[in-house]
Amino acid sequence: MNRVMPTRCSVLMVVAVSLVVMGACAGGGGVAPSPSGANDVYTVKPALVTLNAGQTAQLSVTRQRVQGQDVVNTDVTSTSTFTSSAPTVAAVSTGGLVTAVAAGGATILIAVSNANVSASVTVTNDLTRFNGIWKGSISLAALSCAGSQADYGETLTINVNSSGVGTLTATDSPGFDRQYAVTIPSSASFTSQGVFSFGGQQVPGQIAVTIAAGTSNGTTSLTYTETTNWGSCTNTYGGTLTKQ
Fold first, then answer.
1. Is residue 73's pLDDT more than 80?
2. Is 71 exposed, middle or buried (0-12, 13-18, 19+ CB in 10 A)?
3. Which fold has domain 13-124?
4. CA distance 237 to 64
């Protein structure tokens, strides 16, 4: 007795983030060649991205093409189209640079040639990553207080909770400690005011800080300006400090 075997339609399968381009059903089944005459495999790296708000990651897309006995890998990032499912969480540039904006999840959809691939992005915003010691040199930009130096060695100590609420203590080389109550937002750019005891007087001050969130390798530096008023004189100074 003759048996008729049912045909099975080939399907488009995504294994991890590698996409194999296969043809639709054709005759008795099998894989229909792509327009180029080859089965192309597209891979995006990294496929899973975890960033803190403000950090960036570069995506790349590679095409693997089998032609006869040869396997050719080609970077096709520049010809791919990138779209974020949630640009308020993770934005993406035309070249595949992902920028973490706010806590949440997003999918980066990538269209390339006759295929689609994607990368998953998770953005966290645990601001305790800024905690620690930052050191560098600062210079006086506006000086009116007698006896003030033009340059100082500066140390900032940040101690905040996961929501960014805590303190920032500034200590220059002569030992003038100033402590500010701060709340660090996801943008990592903030200002604060405080009053400090120095030389028997209460010294008002204001500090503005921008932390360079850096890449997925982590935070590296911050820039700040600070203005203090002592009696009738005012000092404004600033500089760049490095995380220790």
1. yes
2. exposed
3. Immunoglobulin-like (2.60.40)
4. 55
